[in-house]
Amino acid sequence: MDLNLQQMYKMQNELDRRIESERGLENADLLDKKILALLVEIGELANETRCFKFWSSKPPSSKDIILEEYVDGVHFLLSIGLILPFEVPERVHVPDDFEGEAVGAFLKVYESVTTFKNNSEDVNNYNQLMEDYLMIGRILGFTIEEIQDAYLSKNKVNHTRQDQGY
Questions:
Q1: What would the pLDDT profile of 22-34 be if each residue is shown by its tens digit?
Q2: Using only C-alpha atoms, what is the Rg of the chain?
Q3: Which of 124, 148, 122, 153 is nearest to 134 (CA)?
Q4: Would you say the C-alpha torsion 12, 15, 19, 25 has a positive or negative sign?
Q5: CA 140 to CA 126: how far, in whole Å?
Q6: pTM (2 decimals)?
Q7: d(CA 122, CA 106)
């Protein structure tokens, strides 16, 4: 199964250009800030899934809340891809058959972020990070359609927030 990123990159580019223009950041180097924001979003997602909280019997948040946190990470992944010195992929393959559990997938994504951070000029590192993050979505049970729909919805929310001076 493939995730078509073309529309999502276009929408993310519009949001990023708007934010950068309104905040006077057109020439700013925002890569490190976007990488840190992605790491924070990954942590927030893990927290909502509660997959690592062996000490607690409290259940995970609702699927809708987890999906919203998940697409926050997608926003930053796309945003990072847009500032890199290479063509971003139009599609990313997401395996239908996969093995793994959430904790391992989260740790793998953190590792992929670090690998990417240490060599952000290598498109393979970015593509691997994107694939690893999408794998978390599969492990959490999200379909490609759910991810795309949630992204479109959250993108509208992000524009509304900018309208309101967020």
A1: 999 999 999 999 9
A2: 16
A3: 148
A4: positive
A5: 22
A6: 0.90
A7: 22
